[in-house]
Specification:
binds zinc ion, disordered C terminus, 4-stranded antiparallel sheet, 301 residues, N-terminal domain of MutM-like DNA repair proteins, alpha+beta, Helicase, Ruva Protein, domain 3, 6 helices, 21% strand, 2 domains
Length: 301
């Protein structure tokens, strides 16, 4: 799932291709927007806010400035191609949800999880709930810390994934930050030893990855060694050799997967039946019951 750094790079790429240019074509394949036509509007900028993308369009024909808002959710992407090229073989045509055409470049939104069109003055209705944006120009570490500590009994992993606390963290950075801090994702936020340092760590991880393709938290770019625990269930911890495990964090039905090393990350941990776990993604090659997250796992204190 794309996290803040991927969305930040997507915004930068779209901005470079579209900003300052007039849309000569627009095709929004989204039920509520099927009749919307943005042709003739000039793109002012494309920005990210946490995991949200905001394409801001100038006023046109007496109509106010508009913002085309999108979210990549699980598998969405935006790609840019030269206008007139057919993008052959890049993505399935049935997955296309938005096409924004300019004289030089065309941006194609593929398998987007959300698409909205609102007056720019109403953007806050869509993103006003977000906590401080880890990669935003106005990153506010103090406010992030305040929001993180606001519910001291909440599990750290769950709080980190709440976009109202910190905008931009997904399961990858949640798991890696907890590993690097040496705490389990089920640690109560109020028991985090050095919360301000932890917030700074999360910020540093995303910031360090925003300019490169791929996410690296180990400093080691070799394949399979880029990160410590995320998606590595069943494999030995790169630091201590203990088998990395995975269990749900957060309350159903919104629980997410948290990967952790039981030895490097002492503290509250989920009980599970101890059965072998496979790395994330390997379940696709196995029977369905080999799913990474053990059902029925409970948290022990
Ligand atoms: Zn370990």
């Amino acid at each position: 799932m794309p996290e803040g750094d991927v969305v930040w790079r997507t915004a930068r790429r779209l901005h470079a291709a579209l900003a300052g240019r007039e849309l000569t074509g627009c095709d929004l394949r989204w039920p509520s927007l099927a009749t919307a036509d943005l042709s003739g509007r000039r793109v002012l900028e494309v920005a990210s806010a946490g995991k949200h993308l905001l394409a801001r369009l100038a006023a046109h024909d007496g109509e106010p400035p508009l913002t085309l808002h999108s979210h990549l959710r699980m598998e969405g992407s935006w790609y840019v191609e030269r206008t007139g090229s057919d993008g052959r073989g890049r993505r399935s045509a049935s997955g296309v949800r938005a096409v924004l055409t300019t004289g030089a470049w065309t941006a194609v939104g593929h398998k987007l999880g959300m698409l909205d069109l609102v007056p720019t003055s109403a953007e806050a209705d869509l993103v006003g709930h977000l906590g401080p944006d880890l990669l935003g120009p106005g990153w506010d570490a103090d406010e992030a810390l305040r929001r993180l500590l606001a519910q001291p009994r909440r599990h750290l992993g769950e709080a980190l994934l709440d976009q109202r606390v910190l905008a931009g963290v997904g399961t990858f950075y949640m798991a890696e930050a907890c590993f690097l801090a040496g705490v389990s994702p089920w640690t109560a936020v109020g028991e985090l030893p050095a919360p301000a340092r932890f917030v700074a760590l999360v910020h540093r991880l995303l910031d360090a990855n925003k300019d490169r393709t791929g996410q690296v938290t180990t400093g080691d770019l070799r394949r399979g060694r880029e990160n410590f625990v995320h998606a590595r269930s069943g494999l030995p911890c790169l630091r201590c050799g203990t088998t990395v495990r995975v269990a749900p964090v957060g309350a159903p039905p919104q629980e997410r997967t948290a990967f952790y090393c039981p030895r490097c990350q002492p503290g509250p941990a989920p009980t599970d039946d101890g059965r072998p776990q496979a790395p994330l993604g390997s379940a696709r090659r196995r029977p369905a019951r080999a799913s990474a997250a053990p059902p029925g796992s409970r948290v022990r204190r």
